C-alpha cells in the first residue's frame, strides 16, 4: 500500500507539474503571438476641430481592441496619452521636417525629444520618415539622409532592434502594375527608391506603402468592377500565371512585391501603412461600400496575398475619424468613427 500510495502521489505530482508547464508555455506563446496575430492598426489623423481628446482616443483604441496606431507627427499630447497603453505606434516625420533632419545633430535631437523621452512606456514600432514623397518633389533628396540620421540616432539609444526606420510610399511610384507580376518601379522612381530599398534591407526594416483600391477603381471604373475593389468578387478575376486574384488589394500589393523582386529585394516585407474607403463625397463613396471594404479587408489580411500566401499583412486602416479640416469631398469622410466616438460601421478589430 505504501508503495502504491507513493506512486500515486508521484503520478499526481507529475501531472500537476506537466499541467503547470503547459499552462505557462501557453501563456508565453499567447504573449509572443498576440502582436503577430494583431495585423490591424488604425491611422489617427487630427485634421479636425471637433475631435475627442487624445486620452479619449487612446481609450477608444483600447475598448475596440485596436493594438496599433499610426500618427503623422510627434504630437506631445498624443504621445503622453499613449504612455502605458501598450499600443504599438508608427510615428511619422512630417514631410516639411525632412530637410532639417539631413543634419545629424538635428536628427539626434528629434529622436531624443520625440522617441527616447517616451520609449520607456510608449511602444514605438516604426518611424515613418516622410509620407508619399515623390521623386520630383523638392524634399525627395532629403528622405534617405533623414532616414539614415534617424536610424543612427535610434541605434545610439540602443533601440534599433525595437524600432525600425522606413518611409511610406504610394503606388504611383509603379510604372507598371498590371498584371501584378509585371509590377515594376517607373524609370523616374527607380533612382529615388532603389537606395531606400537597400537601406531597408540592410537594417531589417519593412517598406511602408499606402494602398488604396478605392483610387484605382475610381480612376478606371470602366475596366475595374466594383466587386473586385470591395473583396466581393465570387471568383478569380485576374489570372496571372500561377497566381489568381479575387480582389484589387492583393493585386496592388503583389505588384509592389513584384517591383521589389525586380529591384533585387525579394525578401523585403511590405507593411500597408494606409488603406481605406470614403463614406461620402465622391464616386462609389457610400457608407455601405465603405463598411463592406473595411470589414472584408480586416478579415482578408490574415491570409496574405497570392505571392505571400499565409503571411499576414500588417495593415493600418485609414482613418480613425472623419476630419472636417481636410479638403472638402472624400478626404473628410474616411473615418471609422464619427467625432463623437460613435462607430460608422460594425467592425471587429481584435
Key traits:
TIM Barrel; globular; 10 helices; 8-stranded parallel β-barrel; 350 residues; alpha/beta; single chain; 40% helix; 15% strand
Commentary on this structure:
The chain has helices spanning 2-37, 54-63, 76-82, 104-116, 140-156, 187-203, 213-219, 226-229, 248-262, 287-300; strands at residues 40-43, 68-71, 88-93, 123-131, 164-170, 174-176, 184-185, 207-210, 238-240, 243-245, 270-275, 315-317. With 350 residues, the protein is an alpha/beta fold. The protein has 2 domains: 1-37; 41-332, TIM Barrel, CATH 3.20.20. The chain has an 8-stranded parallel beta barrel with strand order 1-2-3-4-5-8-11-12. It has a two-stranded antiparallel sheet with strand order 6-7. The protein has a two-stranded antiparallel ribbon with strand order 9-10. The model is unreliable at 1-37 (pLDDT under 50). Belongs to the glycosyl hydrolase 17 family. Its EC number is 3.2.1.39.
Rg over alpha carbons: 23 Å
CATH class of the largest domain: Alpha Beta
Tally of distinct domains? 2
Report the CATH superfamily of the largest domain.
Glycosidases
Q: Architecture of the largest domain, according to CATH?
A: Alpha-Beta Barrel
Structural class, judged by helices and strands? Answer: alpha/beta
Please give the number of β-strands: 12
Multimerization status: single chain
Q: Name the shape in a single word.
A: globular
Low-confidence stretches: 1-37
Count of individual helical segments: 10
